[in-house]
Specification:
By secondary structure, the protein is mainly α. Helix content is 79%, strand content 0%.
Length: 407
C-alpha cells in the first residue's frame, strides 16, 4: 500500500468515507439538537407541568451535567473496550433519555430524564471523536475535523427553527419524540456504518483506575493542553456573543427582531462556509498557521466590539462587523486545534476526546451567565468575557503549543 493510501485508510485499515463522516457528525450533532430544539418549548413546559421557569431552566443544566459525565466516562471506556460497543450504548442511553422526557409526568422526572439523555449523548460524542482519531491522521485529521465542525455548525441554525415548527403543530412532548427518533438513528447508523476502529492490541486494561490515569496522562502533555485551551477559550469567547448579542443589538443598538435573527443566522453560516474553506486549505496551509490566522482575526473582532459596543455613538455596522469576524474566525480554530491536540495523544484518543469535550462544555456553561449579566443595560460583562477568552486562547497558543527545540 502506498503512503497516500495508508494515510487515506488510517492505521487501522478503515477507509474514511463520506458515510463514516456523516455518521460521526450525527453522533456529535444530536447533543446540540437536544438543547437548541427544546428551548422554544420552555413556556409550554412551564404551563403543562405546573412549574416555574427556573426549574424548566434546570433541565438545561441537567443535560449539560449529564453530557459532561457521559464524555468523562465514555472516552476512557472506549480506550479499554473498543469504540463500537460504547458508541452503540451511548446512542441507546440517549434514546432512552429522550423517551423518558417525552413521557415525563412531572418536572423532576423531566430533569432526571434530561441527565440520562445527556449522559448518552456525551458517551456517543466522545467516542465518535475518538473514532475519527483512529482512522484519520495528519492533515487528513484536521480536514475531517473541519468538515465535522461545518456540519455541526448547522445544528444551532436548524434546531431552534425545527423546534418552533414542531410546537406550532404539536405539544412540547413531540419535540422529545423527534429527538428520540434522532437517538434511534444514532444507534442504527452506528450499528450499520461504524466498524471497530481500535484493535484489541491497542486497548488498555485496568478499569476505573486506568481510566483516571488516562485522563491524567493527557493533562500532562503540554501541547495537548495548549491546543485544548485554545479551543476551549475560543468557545468561551464565542459564547459571549451567543449569550448576550440579542440584548446588545436589539436593546442597546435598536435592531429589530427579524433583522437580528437574519444576522444571527448569517454569523453561524459564515462559520460553516469558512470551515469548509479550512478543510480545503489543509495540506496547502499548515493547521498551526490557520489557527494563528483565526486567533488574530478574533482579536481584531474583539477590538471592533470594544469600540462599537462600549461607545454609544458608533455605528451599528461596526458592532455587527465585530460579531461577524469573531464568529467566522472560529472556523480556523476549532477543527485545527482539536486535530493537533489529538495527534499528541493518539494512544489514549478516548480520554483525550473526553477532556476536550468536557473542557468546552464547562467553558461555555460558565461564559453564558457571565456575559449576559449586563442584559440590555451594559455590554461590559459581555466584552470582558470575549476579550478575556480571546486573550487566554492567544496566550495558550503562543506559550504552550510550540514544539520543543532539539538540544
Amino acid at each position: 500500500m502506498t503512503a497516500t493510501a495508508a494515510t487515506r485508510r488510517g492505521s487501522v485499515g478503515v477507509p474514511v468515507t463520506a458515510t463514516l463522516i456523516g455518521t460521526i457528525a450525527l453522533q456529535t450533532a444530536v447533543p446540540p439538537f437536544a438543547t437548541d430544539m427544546y428551548t422554544p418549548a420552555f413556556p409550554r413546559v412551564t404551563l403543562d407541568l405546573g412549574t416555574s421557569a427556573g426549574l424548566v431552566g434546570l433541565t438545561l443544566t441537567a443535560f449539560f451535567l449529564g453530557l459532561a459525565i457521559g464524555q468523562l466516562a465514555g472516552g476512557p471506556w472506549s480506550d479499554q473496550r473498543g469504540r463500537r460497543t460504547p458508541l452503540i450504548v451511548g446512542g441507546v442511553v440517549c434514546l432512552a433519555g429522550a423517551i423518558g422526557c417525552a413521557l415525563a409526568p412531572s418536572i423532576w422526572v423531566l430533569v432526571a430524564a434530561r441527565v440520562v439523555q445527556g449522559v448518552g449523548g456525551g458517551i456517543a460524542a466522545a467516542v465518535a471523536r475518538a473514532v475519527v482519531v483512529d482512522v484519520a491522521h495528519g492533515d487528513q485529521l484536521a480536514r475531517v475535523m473541519s468538515i465535522l465542525q461545518a456540519l455541526g455548525g448547522l445544528a444551532p441554525m436548524v434546531a431552534p427553527v425545527l423546534g418552533a415548527l414542531v410546537i406550532t403543530v404539536a405539544t412540547w412532548r413531540t419535540v422529545f419524540w423527534v429527538l428520540a427518533g434522532l437517538g434511534a438513528l444514532m444507534v442504527l447508523t452506528a450499528v450499520w456504518f461504524v466498524p471497530e476502529t481500535l484493535p484489541a492490541e491497542r486497548r488498555h486494561s485496568g478499569g476505573l483506575r486506568r481510566s483516571v490515569a488516562g485522563i491524567g496522562e493527557v493533562l500532562r502533555v503540554r501541547r495537548f493542553v495548549g491546543y485544548t485551551l485554545v479551543a476551549t477559550f475560543s468557545g468561551f469567547t464565542m459564547m459571549g456573543y451567543i449569550a448576550n448579542s440579542s440584548y446588545v443589538l436589539q436593546v442597546m443598538k435598536g435592531m429589530a427582531p427579524i433583522p437580528f435573527s437574519l444576522f444571527f443566522a448569517a454569523t453561524a453560516f459564515s462559520q460553516v462556509l469558512l470551515s469548509i474553506l479550512n478543510a480545503r486549505l489543509v495540506g496547502r496551509v499548515r493547521p498551526r498557521a490557520m489557527i494563528r490566522i483565526g486567533l488574530v482575526a478574533t482579536s481584531i473582532g474583539v477590538v471592533a466590539l470594544v469600540l462599537g459596543v462600549l461607545l454609544w455613538d458608533t455605528p451599528l455596522l461596526l458592532t455587527c462587523a465585530g460579531f461577524l469576524v469573531v464568529m467566522a474566525s472560529m472556523a480556523f480554530i476549532y477543527g485545527n486545534s482539536a486535530a493537533l491536540g489529538a495527534l499528541e495523544v493518539t494512544h489514549v484518543a478516548g480520554a483525550a476526546a473526553a477532556v476536550q469535550g468536557v473542557a468546552g462544555a464547562l467553558a461555555m456553561a460558565l461564559a453564558a451567565p457571565l456575559a449576559s449579566a449586563g442584559g440590555g443595560h451594559t455590554a461590559v460583562p459581555m466584552v470582558a468575557v470575549m476579550a478575556g477568552g480571546s486573550a487566554i486562547a492567544l496566550t495558550s497558543y503562543a506559550t504552550l503549543t510550540r514544539a520543543r527545540r532539539a538540544r
